[in-house]
Write a structure and sequence with these properties.
Blueprint lengths: L3 H14 L3 E5 L1 H4 L4 H10 L15 E6 L2 E10 L17 E8 L4
Parallel strand pairs: 1-4
Antiparallel strand pairs: 2-3, 3-4
Amino acid sequence: MPDTAKIRELNDQFRKTMSGGRIVVTNSIATRGDLAEILAKVRDFETFDNGNDPHGEHDFGAFEADRDSIYWKIDYYDRALSHGSPNPADESVTCRVMTVMLAEEY
């Protein structure tokens, strides 16, 4: 049984500080003139509900920016980034990767 509270805590910490994992932005996001504002919206995101957070891990969010739908998603990999993490609640065996993308790229 996963430790959902610990996973949520680690995800929130990573998202809010943008440290403790890797951040990937798609080319569509990287070439926008508002990248800093988009990343700020990711950091400040708090609109979690059953629709976007059914497992309570705070690993996904969506918002609008200049008429575009933006998604961000946190995935859990092993430290070598070759497989999924054996335990996303354990920082010593997990590398968090957050991808920020246009909704149409999901």
